[in-house]
Write a structure and sequence with these properties.
153 residues; mainly alpha; 2 strands; 5% strand; rod-shaped; coiled coil; MATH domain-containing protein; MCC
């Protein structure tokens, strides 16, 4: 239902027209999401729906785009929404998956840096060994070479 203020009512929430499809998808795929919501004040309900949409936007980001603080804030927002009656187990799982991906990414990043340092160190050792080998070869060649008459006399 169009409200004349740029919002549309979807499942008891007034959302901006640009968000209607997103909110409808939430209720189509997760119909239990707001069945137990306690606030009855329309403004409060709208604020919570905006928080939910913001939270979903955050969870859609790639792990490297998020800081630890943003992930903690997302967890707090999720808890606040659950406290007022939103059923968000589905979203909690997604947030947990995102946190795990972030941790794995950081762990892998540290391992990549460690391996890179090891490779650099091994290249330096290899270069030193190659230089030593070259010196040994040069000395060996000079010791096995035949002497000429002028070298002897």
């Amino acid at each position: 239902m169009w409200n004349g203020d740029g919002t549309v009512e979807v499942n008891g929430f007034r959302v901006f027209y640009s968000e209607v499809d997103f909110v409808r998808k939430i209720f189509e795929r997760q119909p239990e999401t707001a069945t137990n919501i306690r606030p009855k004040n329309q403004l409060v309900k709208n604020a919570y729906m905006n928080n939910l949409l913001d939270l979903i936007d955050i969870i859609c980001l790639a792990p490297q785009e998020l800081t630890e603080e943003e992930l903690r804030d997302a967890e707090k927002t999720l808890l606040e929404l659950a406290e007022v009656g939103f059923e968000l187990d589905w979203l909690k799982r997604k947030l947990e998956e995102l946190c795990v991906k972030k941790k794995k990414m950081e762990t892998r990043g540290a391992r990549v840096r460690e391996l890179d340092r090891m490779i650099v160190a091994q290249r330096q050792v290899l270069l030193a060994l190659e230089a030593e080998l070259k010196n040994e070869e040069n000395e060996a060649v000079s010791h096995i070479a035949r002497l000429c008459f002028d070298d002897v006399v």
